[in-house]
Amino acid sequence: MRQEAARRLVPMTETRWLSPEEREAWLALVSIMFTLPGSIESQLQTEADLSLAEYLVLAMLSEATDRRRRMSELATVTNTSQSRLSRIVARLERDGLVVRTGDDKDKRVVLAEITDRGLEKVREVAPGHVEHVRRTVFDRLTPEQVRQLALIGRVVDDTAGPGVMGVAASGM
């Protein structure tokens, strides 16, 4: 009896099913979401003993003007949670690739800074990574498709939340 009354209070709306074109696009996107990260992760693990998340942290730090970023900002630009980022940075610290420091101006802020060794690692890894990304993604697309992909990424990223798309990520 209660369930029946609750159903009457909540207006029922019709499901907006995907059109055949939308379904095809969605399944293509799902395929990319599941296969591309594994391919990139595998390349980085094999050639550099780095995860994609670790590489992104190093790349984002290497692109910062002073080679460091606030941990909160770094979490945003690498699309990861604060707690996951903390674990990633701890691993990179153990390998001497990153150090954490306090901010002289604001003692509550923690900064991650790439070390010279970390910068060298990025310089060593980036060419193979970029070649893999080029081969698996960009060599298959026309210049117009690349522009469309960037636009689609920005639009979807705006809906999903802040991330790399909101930050200039030139050398990834």
Automatic annotation (TrEMBL):
Q: Name one Pfam family in it.
A: MarR_2
Q: Which residues form the HTH marR-type domain?
A: 22-158
Q: Which GO terms describe its molecular function?
A: DNA-binding transcription factor activity
Per its UniProt entry, which superkingdom is the organism in? Answer: Bacteria
Q: Which InterPro entries match?
A: HTH_MarR-typ, MarR/SlyA-like, WH-like_DNA-bd_sf, WH_DNA-bd_sf
Q: Which BP terms from GO are recorded?
A: response to stress
Q: List membrane-spanning regions.
A: none
List, alphabetically, the Gene3D superfamilies matched.
Winged helix-like DNA-binding domain superfamily/Winged helix DNA-binding domain (1.10.10.10)
- Protein name (record): MarR family transcriptional regulator
The scientific name of the source species is Kocuria dechangensis
